[in-house]
Amino acid sequence: MGCIMGLFDDISAHGSSLINAAQAQNRSILKNAMEQFGFASYYKEWWHYTYNNGQYPNEYFDFDVE
């Protein structure tokens, strides 16, 4: 994928020119598969997706997980 998850740097973005062709292709495969099933990508993080068709599509939940 070109970098580890959780690295908040330019290399983490979809469309980054800092990764090679195989890494870009892997990101594209993941992105296409996720979007096909209703997930939306976050352009700055190749691993970050939000499920748009959830039970509560207009609510975000902010609470501690133990």
Element layout with pairings:
Elements: H1 21-36, E1 39-42, E2 45-51
Antiparallel strand pairs: 1-2
| Residues in β-strands, percent | 15-25%
Given helix and strand content, the structural type is alpha+beta
Question: What's the helical proportion of residues?
Answer: 10-25%
How many individual helices? Answer: 1
* Assembly of the depicted chains: single chain
Low-confidence spans: none
Total number of β-strand segments?
2
Biggest β-sheet strands, sense, barrel = 2 strands, antiparallel
SSE arrangement, N to C: HEE
- Which of globular, elongated, flat, extended, rod-shaped describes the shape? globular
| Rg of Cα set | 14 Å
Average per-residue pLDDT, rounded, comes to 88
Strand order of the largest sheet: 1-2
Give the gist of this structure.
This protein has 66 residues and is an alpha+beta fold. It is 24% helix and 17% strand. A hairpin with a 2-residue loop joins strand 1 (39-42) and strand 2.
Polypeptide structure, described:
- The chain is of the alpha+beta class and 66 residues long.
- The protein has one helix and two strands; from the N terminus they run H-E-E.
- The protein has one helix at 21-36, and strands spanning 39-42, 45-51.
- It has a two-stranded antiparallel ribbon.
- It is globular.
- The N and C termini lie far apart (30 Å).
- The mean pLDDT is 88.
